[in-house]
């Protein structure tokens, strides 16, 4: 009788152990496991967002805040990094299709994007301001002055700036720009009256092009966290990168990185 009881208990334990394994995702099925086995971290980047990620004119190599962060992540994982060019319009589709393991571009979080993308614990934050030519700055006293069918906004397809203009300045005429062309290039040539720039990119652009300026610095809009993008279903990989960001923020890595690239207004 005791022997039967032992066999029965062993069978129950084995059943529940097998059932638990079937119900729980294992690290072996995650991108984390595949990256470590392959020895390569594939990073999607647009390469058109100075100072986040851009092509160095001298070397033609990717450079910038997010490129440094990608190299740091790969170094901490003990793997090599491979940069995969992408664009804003297909950024999320690319990570979901497995073209790269993570997108590191300076992407802003949004509810719309979060429906189909996994966002990592934010490394910083951003906000929006209108970017105009200095010679036209006096025309606009408040944000609502831009919400006018006689005023043309430029934006890149697939960006949070596109969503912002459509939601908050719906009366503006619009000029849609396909990457790798940029909306601020349309502003420089006078084909649009304004673009909505992030604090991050706008700060770099007005240094590079003194004929442009940011308006309403004391009235930012759409203050949002900035993050890395991963596949929404891979919780093991999400957890790992979340933990990496927390550790790096705690030891001051992102503070130093922000200072290096002139990124202001971060936590």
Characterization of the model:
There is one protein chain. With 267 residues, this protein is α/β, with parallel strands linked by helices. The protein folds into 2 domains: 29-125 and 224-260, Periplasmic binding protein-like II (D-Maltodextrin-Binding Protein, domain 2), CATH 3.40.190; 127-223, Periplasmic binding protein-like II (D-Maltodextrin-Binding Protein, domain 2), CATH 3.40.190. It has helices at 2-23, 31-38, 65-77, 91-96, 111-114, 160-168, 183-188, 199-208, 235-250, 253-260; strands at residues 40-45, 48-49, 53-55, 62-63, 80-85, 102-108, 118-119, 124-133, 152-156, 173-177, 194-198, 212-214, 221-230. The strands form 2 sheets. Strands 1, 5, 6, 7, 8, 9, 10, 11, 12 and 13 form a 10-stranded mixed sheet that branches. The chain has a 3-stranded antiparallel sheet with strand order 2-3-4. β3 and β4 (62-63) form a beta hairpin. The radius of gyration is 23 Å and the shape is elongated. The relative contact order is 0.17.
Which key phrases capture this entry?
single chain, 267 residues, alpha/beta, D-Maltodextrin-Binding Protein, domain 2, 2 domains, 10-stranded mixed sheet, 3-stranded antiparallel sheet, 13 strands, elongated, disordered N terminus
Number of domains: 2
Main β-sheet: number of strands, strand sense, barrel status? Answer: 10 strands, mixed
CATH architecture annotation name of the largest domain:
3-Layer(aba) Sandwich
Structural class: alpha/beta
Q: What is the helix content?
A: 25-40%
Give the overall pLDDT as a whole number.
Answer: 88
How many β-strand runs?
A: 13
The end-to-end span amounts to 66 Å
CATH-assigned homologous superfamily of the largest domain: Periplasmic binding protein-like II
Task: Please tell me how large the radius of gyration is.
Answer: 23 Å
Query: Tell me, what is the CATH class of the largest domain?
Result: Alpha Beta
Give the helix tally.
10
- Our estimate of the beta-strand percent is 15-25%
| Parts with pLDDT < 50 across at least 5 consecutive residues | 1-26
Shape: elongated
In the CATH scheme, what's the topology name of the largest domain? Answer: D-Maltodextrin-Binding Protein, domain 2
One letter per element, helices H and strands E, the order comes to: HHEEEEHEHEHEEEHEHEHEEHH
């Amino acid at each position: 009788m005791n022997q039967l009881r032992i066999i029965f208990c062993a069978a129950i334990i084995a059943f529940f152990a097998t059932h638990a394994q079937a119900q729980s995702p294992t690290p072996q099925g995650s991108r984390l496991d595949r990256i470590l086995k392959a020895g390569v971290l594939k990073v999607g980047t647009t390469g058109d967002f100075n100072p986040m990620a851009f092509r160095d004119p001298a070397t033609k190599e990717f450079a910038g805040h997010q490129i440094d962060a990608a190299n740091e992540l790969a170094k901490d994982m003990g793997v090599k990094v491979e940069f995969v060019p992408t664009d804003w319009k297909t950024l999320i589709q690319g990570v979901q299709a497995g073209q790269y393991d993570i997108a590191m571009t300076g992407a802003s979080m949004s509810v719309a994007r979060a429906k189909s993308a996994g966002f990592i614990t934010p490394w910083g934050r951003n906000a929006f301001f209108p970017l105009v030519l200095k010679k036209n700055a006096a025309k606009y006293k408040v944000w609502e002055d831009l919400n006018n069918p006689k005023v043309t906004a430029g934006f890149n397809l697939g960006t949070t700036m596109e969503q912002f203009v459509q939601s908050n300045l719906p009366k503006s005429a619009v000029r849609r720009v396909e990457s790798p062309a940029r909306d601020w290039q349309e502003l420089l040539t006078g084909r649009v009256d304004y673009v909505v720039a992030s604090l991050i990119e706008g700060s770099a652009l007005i240094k590079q092009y003194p004929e442009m300026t940011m308006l309403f610095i004391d009235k930012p809009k759409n203050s949002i966290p900035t993050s890395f993008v991963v596949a929404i279903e891979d919780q093991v990989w999400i957890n790992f990168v979340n933990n990496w960001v927390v550790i790096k923020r705690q030891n001051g890595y992102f503070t130093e990185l922000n200072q290096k690239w002139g990124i202001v207004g971060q936590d």
